[in-house]
Amino acid sequence: MTETPERGYNTADVYKHLKAAVDMAVGPGEYQHGKLDELHTNIIDYATKKITAIRPISVKVVVTCTIVQNSGDGFHISNTTLWDDSTDSVVTFKFQNQSMNIVVTAYLVHS
Fold first, then answer.
1. pTM for this structure?
2. Structural contact between residues 55 and 90, judged by C-beta atoms closer than 8 angstroms
3. How far is it, in rounded angstroms, from Cα 86 to Cα 103?
4. How far is CA 32 from CA 49, 68, 73, 98, in A?
5. Residue 18 and residue 94: Cα distance in Å, rounded?
6. What are the pLDDT digits (tens) for 59-94?
7. pLDDT-derived band of residue 37, with 50, 70 and 90 as boundaries?
8. Which residues of 38-70 are buried (b: 16+ CB within 10 A; e: fewer)?
9. How far apart (Å, rounded) are the C-alpha atoms in residues 58 and 37?
10. 84 φ, ψ to 5°?
């Protein structure tokens, strides 16, 4: 995860912002179904704001967030992309505690 002249941003910084978004929103919190909308919104809004501030204007940002209650069952998330690896990237942060799993992904695509 490094900055390249073609990208104009550092993927390590993107990862740092995804992690900070989850840390800020979750803290030591437990899964609460009634607060999922707020948790999801806080993570997405924070990550999008921070990543948008560090990317060149020509790079579009899409942030996704999946929150799953940790009930002992597994879950699977997958994606596929067709793009230019020298200018576009995907960065994922995974979080798990006793009560939930969170996966936040940022897609950065040069337009």
1. 0.90
2. no
3. 24
4. 25, 11, 17, 12
5. 9
6. 999 999 999 998 888 888 888 888 888 889 999 999
7. very high
8. ebbebbbebbbebbeebbeeebebebebebeee
9. 30
10. -90, 110
